[in-house]
Amino acid sequence: MSISFKSLVSWSVALVAAVLALQAIYVAISGGWDITYGRSWILCGAVVIALLGNPLAERVQNSRSSIIRNLPVWLLWGIDLILIAVFVYGTMKFIEIQILIEETIFEYDMKDIWAAFAAVVVLLEATRRLFGLPIVIIASLGIIYCLYGEYLPGFLTHSGFSLNRSMQTIWYSFQGVYGLPMGVVLQVVLIFVVFGVILESTGASDALISASVALTGKTRGGPAHSAVVASAVFGSMSGSVTANVVGTGSFTIPMIKRRGFSPAMAGGIEAAASTGGQIVPPVMGAAAFLMSDLTGLAYTTICIAALIPALFYYGSLFASISIQAGADGIEPIPESERPPLNRKDLLACLMFIIPIGIIVFVLVMGRSPALAGFWAIVAAVILGVFNKRNRENPWVVWEALKKAGRSCAWILVAVGCIGVILGVLNLTGLGISFASVVAEFSEFSLLAALLTTALAALVLGMGMPTLPAYLIIILVLGPVMQKLGAEPLATHMFVFYFGVLSAITPPVAIGAFAAAPIANAHPFSTAVVAVRLALVGFIIPFIFVYEPSLLLVGDFEILSFLRVAICLALAIWFINTALIGYERRSLAIPERTLRVVIGAGLLVQIPAFQVAFFVVGLMLLGFGVVLSRRRLTS
């Protein structure tokens, strides 16, 4: 194809992306579009961005098959344009039929059904190009299950549904692709996706990294600790682990390596830190607002509940990095080499401090999350004007809108695909059946039921951005947790944590795979290090299900909270020193084993048990201090 055609496609994608971002800002002010027109045409725009922004003509060039690589370029572009035409037709059919349903009794014919089926296939193809096969396979199996589930045994069986009935629910109702999740994303989430991109584009992320490096210069970890701080703040706003890894990791990972950490460790630190950013209030990758909507709890309640677990997660990361630095013989950066935090840097920090403060202020005043996101964007743009680089390049606004629109499209396509799965669950009742089966585990062991749920959450969340991962998991597994007797907020937080942590869990580990090329490390080795660093994140959800006091809301008991917090802090230290094999000195295998046992014992939520292990743990720590002093004096 000629350069002019490619240029036309590029500008078309950019224009649609910018419109998508601008409509998110408009919705935050006005309250939204008509449900039929808004949800359908906005998803259609997202699919256009996904297909033309990732065209077959470019993807085929990387194919290993010479036959595929030699396909005519005009044919590949033709296929993409046909796919877009099919989806546009399906969208128009959806709108037409929704109007008819409001006005009269309507009966579907096969042309309507096949138009819907073709549009769903195009949606799955757009999802595949953005996120790969895992989520597409699940959605495809769901459609097959609708059609042939009556032949399956046990709890999987149902009465059977025709293609006609399946497409009525999946495409032509508000229980499938255009269901509640799509509405929540359009009303609340997209404005924060735009906010995160604008904040990054105006230079706030650079100021954040500079401040983080200056503040952590005295620690052994140095740049590694700065990566943790920067990723915690930036990751909370970005809503994407991958974007966070690339955005902060391109700067922090080389610095971490220069301090003496191995490539896999450098990549693992950034992957674990970026993943944890999604659990940090007040934004939590925009999931806090979705969780508030789904639970019916106040947004401030969600933030308060998320605070202590997030502090423990990052406290564990800090401790693990410090222990590893000690084991590797890495010393703090000499004071002469530390970048000073001058007045200019402090003023630059206001570029991200003020917008975040505005979000909290507007929400505390009782206004809507969307309006908070809008005023945060206004503040970010105004503050961006004070950045000389932005004044010299006004096109930064256009670039930010394009990037924001593309990010919105990714979320919308993923949520549309999840809508297919949601339609299957609503039609077949599979979610309720699965919940009943898993609930049977709880009759024998609550822990076994939780482990099963956690494993399912990790699988469902693999390869997905934070928000869609949480959404699909809570829709499928939420009823399971409710049957186990867990508190609703603990339920949502439990599956949310495992949906987030799926980003670093092998074999997909999308966050680790994004960090590995920057660190020049093997992706699997990077994922293993990231999981070890983030181990506490896999443990905390079990604790707050058993002891909801850790969430600070509901039936809060101060004594239970203190017991859990102190034991968890000590367990974190013992487990980290055992895994790394160092605490002021190298630890022998027997002592490392003992530390693992003590750490595990402190996590068992039986007070008498915890007190016993706490005493033993203090004795072991005292013994280690005495032994280290003897070695220094000898």
Description:
By secondary structure, the chain is mainly alpha-helical. Among the domains are: 177 residues, no CATH class; 78 residues. Helices cover 77% and strands 0% of the residues.
Which segments are poorly predicted (pLDDT under 50) over 5 or more consecutive residues? none
Shape: globular
- Largest sheet features: none
Mean pLDDT: 82
Helical content class: over 70%
Number of strands: 0
Radius of gyration in whole Å, from Cα? Answer: 26 Å
Structural class, please?
A: mainly alpha
Enumerate how many helices there are, as a single number: 29
How many angstroms separate the termini? 77 Å
- Approximate strand percentage: under 5%
Order of helices and strands: HHHHHHHHHHHHHHHHHHHHHHHHHHHHH
